[in-house]
Amino acid sequence: QWTHCHASLHLMNSLNHATPAPLFEGGVRAQNLTLTYASPRSTTYAVRDVSLEIGPQQFAGIVGPSGSGKSSMLYLMSGLRTATSGEVFFGDFHYSAATPSQKLDFRRREFGFIFQSPHLVPYLSVLENVLVPIENPKTDDKAFALELLERLGIAELAAKFPNECSGGERVRVSMARGLVHRPKWLWVDEPTASLDHVTGATVMNVLRTQTQHGALVVVTHDLEILDDADVVFKMRDGVLVGHDVAVRS
Ligand code: ADP
Ligand code: MG
Q1: This prediction's pTM
Q2: Which ligand is in closest contact with the Cα of 115?
Q3: Distance, CA 5 to ligand 2 centroid (Å)?
């Protein structure tokens, strides 16, 4: 199913300092992203000169060992962290050059986030937590939120509060919250880390439906959940060391 595309990666790298024509219309384009952490004694490169592109309806994976810079890469592309150097574009929109309020606007409208720590609001019910990304939830929004909870296997928790849910249940609540406004870009960090195998497969199925209207970008060290990804980027020590593209017949 996989073909190795080192040749095209080399091409991408050799074009790094020019501005290559985008591979995808309306996709995300990361150009020479670098993130360093400076301490008095040394500088750590969390991400080092990484360039990649993801199409607007692709399922993309980012894999690599712990500490290889996967999460940092997700934060940089989604603008939650500012790069030490490098640029991010969404289609023609120069995201990394936008003002903080433009970025915030763009994120609210276009992005959904699912992180390892779910950060639920303790005094809101599960259903209310799921609806947080929507300013004035209508009946349709509530129905969709309940449908997501159902598909994630936690419909019976809708009226409960976060402190009445297990860790794995809270993660699934945060997944419904990430999906509820049908974002164009869904950024997901280690979705199956706190879930058993069967539940992991269920949530991947739900996340996968995202690509009917947007892109799904998943960071993981579990290659199995990327079986039907369109592209898998491999990181090591902050560097992009290769990528595999799925060939569909
Ligand atoms: P991954 O998600 O692949 O486990 P991360 O992106 O979290 O990797 O981290 C990449 C590197 O950056 C690691 O070496 C990590 O120790 C370092 N790092 C991450 N956050 C910080 C921080 N706040 N301060 C210093 N170093 C950090
Ligand atoms: Mg990580």
Answers
A1: 0.90
A2: 2
A3: 25
